[in-house]
Amino acid sequence: MRQALSGIVSKSAFPLKTIMILAMAMTFVVADVASSLAAKSAAIVVDAKTGKVLYSANADGRRYPASLTKMMTLYLTFEAMAKGKISRNSPVVFSAHASAEAPTKLGVKPGGSVAVETAILSIVTKSANDSATALGEMLGGNETNFARMMTAKARQLGMNGTVFRNANGLPDPGQFTTARDMATLGIALREHFPQYYGYFAQRSFLYGRQRINGHNRLLGRIKGVDGIKTGYTRASGFNLVSSVNDGNRRLVAVVMGGTSGGSRDNQMAGLINTYLPRASTRGGGDLVAKADSNAISALAKVLLPKHDAPTPDEKPAAVAEADTAVADDATVAQGDSEDEDAAEAEAPKLVVPAKKVKTVIVSAPKVATAQIVAAYAEPTPVVDPVNTASVPPGWAIQVASSPKQSEAQAFLDKTIKQAPKVLADASGFTVAFDKDGATYYRARFGGFGSKDAAWKACTALKKKKIECYAVQQ
């Protein structure tokens, strides 16, 4: 072996000294990569009475939300309950898609159903992905439409750095948020739905004869902590939003990108102990304005273009029907899950007395989804319902036009999978228009601040054989 190595070195065009220098350089590169991974963590602490930021670290940096996504799913669920569209006992039917979601999940078979309250409790404790998807399908008609409702609601609440693609937070390259936005959502949940906020304090619940324990180990460990939500995938690291109320002061704190559940919890505990004494005992009024208007109309105001721009001269080929089934299978293949217990089996579990909650497993006809969707969404507008004065300036890029909205949406999903880096800052949407008496749907990505930025993105997409052109909104 030694002779073979010496022969390789002697025949190499690089002397041994050069090879050693290159090896040392590679060491620094590896160190830089490790440093960049470590830098992905983010945190913020907000006084929930005054809105003052008491601590901030990378609070506006883009992060994967993981199961923090479910906070918005629950926000829209609470909103539907408050408006009387659904009740705690309304049946949530699980489709084949919902039942097939990756763990953790409740495990309801396709066609089965549970009460809304059971779905809520399974989300706040077990972080059940199937329950989140089933609620999204119930409220939005389908998960894609519900994700648009989630993003629209985020904009209404002032969460401008967030885009949702699904109801549960399983990995999607187009789904992202910031620590600041998650703090905003945490505050809004308490302010807007105090009647339902107590769900987040639940440590466990009974599902049939099974007791399901929660992932939030700060409940019962840190005095005053009353929720809200944990999250974990390999891409996101360990995330946590915590709400604290000691009777006089209130905080909402966010930690994202933790290297383990234990280190994340310890970081959160340190932030709470440090900054709760600094929070104000005074404050008045809601910090986050309520957003009661139609979610899809709000999304249109944010994203739809001002003008009915022409379609590209050369239309991209129609997307095959097989592409319309967007990939949660890929998620499963990656081995990602929202199961903190599986990801960190060695973490010590707190032994706390569990409050008993009676829940009912319901077998009932499917709830009238069409009535709920009609109350919350306008899925396929024929014309652009946009007041141009309300549309922020900006540019969009168009990648396809199709007579079917499903094909246009499938093309968006396919495009972001082909070019996730190019479209990292963009938000996909479809917009309907009439041509010769027929309705067509454009597939576009918005969020570009200038014409140059839009055309630069188009150039990058064309290198990947994706046709594209830019249009001003």
Essential attributes:
473 residues, five-stranded antiparallel sheet, Beta-lactamase, protease, globular, alpha+beta, Alpha-Beta Plaits, 15 helices
Protein model, in words:
This protein is an alpha+beta fold and 473 residues long. It folds into three domains: 2-37; 41-296, DD-peptidase/beta-lactamase superfamily (Beta-lactamase); 392-472, Alpha-Beta Plaits, CATH 3.30.70.1070. The chain has 15 helices and 13 strands. The protein has helices at 2-11, 16-38, 69-82, 96-99, 116-125, 129-140, 143-156, 179-192, 261-275, 295-303, 329-334, 340-343, 369-376, 405-418, 451-463, and strands at 42-47, 53-57, 91-93, 113-115, 204-207, 210-213, 225-233, 237-245, 250-258, 395-402, 427-435, 438-448, 469-472. A five-stranded antiparallel beta sheet has the order 2-1-9-8-7, sandwiched between helices. Strands 11-12-10-13 form a four-stranded antiparallel beta sheet, with helices on one face. Strand 8 (237-245) and strand 9 (250-258) form a beta hairpin. Helix 6 (129-140) packs across helix 7 (143-156). It starts with a helix and ends with a strand. Mean pLDDT is 75; it is low at 1-14, 25-39, 295-336 and 344-393.
